[in-house]
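ESCALATION

Customer reports they have been waiting on this structure for their group meeting. Please prioritize. Original submission:
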Amino acid sequence: MKGWTGKLVALGIAAALGTAAAQAQISDNVIKIGVLSDMSSLYTDLAGAGSVVAAKMAVEDSGIEKRGYKVEVISADHQNKPDVGSAIARQWYDTEKVDVIVDTPNSGVALAVNQITKDKGKAFLVSGAATSDLTGKACTPNTIHWTYDTWMLANGTGGAIVKTGGDTWFFITADYAFGQALERDTAAVVTKNGGKVVGGVKVPLNNQDFSSFLLQAQSSKAKIIGLANAGGDTTNSIKQAAEFGIVKGGQNLAGLLVFLTDVHALGLPTAQGLIFTETFYWDMNDQTRAFAKRFAERDKGIHPTMVHAGVYSAVLHYLKAVEALKSDDGTKVVAKMKEMPTDDPLFGKGSVRADGRKIHPAYLVEVKKPSESKGEWDLYKIRATIPADQAFRPMADGGCPLAK
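Update from on-call: job pushed to the front of the queue and completed.
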C-alpha cells in the first residue's frame, strides 16, 4: 500500500504544480471580469443584471474553475455617462485588478472605455454598445465588438425596408454617439438603394415625451419614420406613435434597434408587425432554448436578449483564449481570440476579424400577431437570414488601421 500512497502523493504534487504553472501568468492568480452596464435606466432590461447572469453562466459552462483557475465577476452601473464609465474603468484596471470589461450598452461610454482599455493593455468585449466606429476609426488591438453594430442594423433593417417600397425617411434619433452612428449608417443605405431622407430630429437620451418629435415626423409625410434609438426610448416612441394613430394614418415605423425585452414591454397588440434585425433569438433551436430556460430561472423569468447572448458567448471565448495562453495579458488574449475560431451554443461557429469585429449571421425578424404567439416570450418569426459574410461591414470599408 505504501507504493500506492507514494504514487497518490506524487500525483497530487504534479496536479498542484500543474495548477501553479497555469496560474503563473495570471495576474494576482485571479481572472477578474467586470460587467459594466446600465443597471438602473433605459437599457437595464436589455443588458443590466442579465449581463451579469450571462457572464457567470459562461464562467460555469467553461469549466475553467474545475481546472484550477480562479475567476471573479464584478459589476457596476455606468449610468449612461461617459465620465462615470471612464472613472469606473480606470479604478477597475488600476486598483481592482480587473482584466477584462464586458457588455457596456451606450456607445459614448464604450468609446471612452475603448481608449482607456488600450492605454492600460487590458481587454474590452463589447456586447451592448452599437456604434460601428468601434471596428472602424476607433478600433484598437484590445477591443472586440461582439454582438451587433449600427452598420449591421442599417443594412439589415434599412435595406429590407427600402427594397419593399419604404423609400422616404424621417429620423427620430437619440442625441449621442449611438443614435448619430445609427442614423448615419441607415441614411447611407437608404440613399444607396434609391431612397431619400426628408428630415430628422435629435432627441435627448432617456426621453419621456416624444409627442413634438412624432408630430414633426407625421407632418414630413415620410413613408418611414426611422427610430434611431433603443430601450425605453424606443418603447416610448412606439407607444406614443400608436396614440397619435401614425401607423393607421399610412406611415410606418422602422425600429432600427429593438430588443426582445422592448417587444415584451410593448405587448404584441402594439408591437405586432414591427420588422427589425437581431443576431440572436432564444427560440431558434434546442441549444438556444435550453440556455434561455436556465437564464430565465436566474433573471426573474426574463428571456435573454442578443446582448445577454453576446456577453455569454464573448466571455466563453475569452476564457478559452486565457487558458490556451495561460495568461490574462489583455493585448495577447485579444490577439489569441482573433486567432482561434469561435464556437458556442448560441451563435454557433464564427470568427473574430483583425479589426475586432465578431462575425456571425444576422436575422430579419417580424413581431408576431397576438393570435400567432404560443406564450409570453414567443414574440418573433424570422423572415430572412443574413449570412455571416454579408451581415457586417466589409473590413476594407471601415477605416480601421488594424485591417491593413
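Sent to customer with the following note: The two ends are 64 Å apart (CA to CA).
Escalation resolved.
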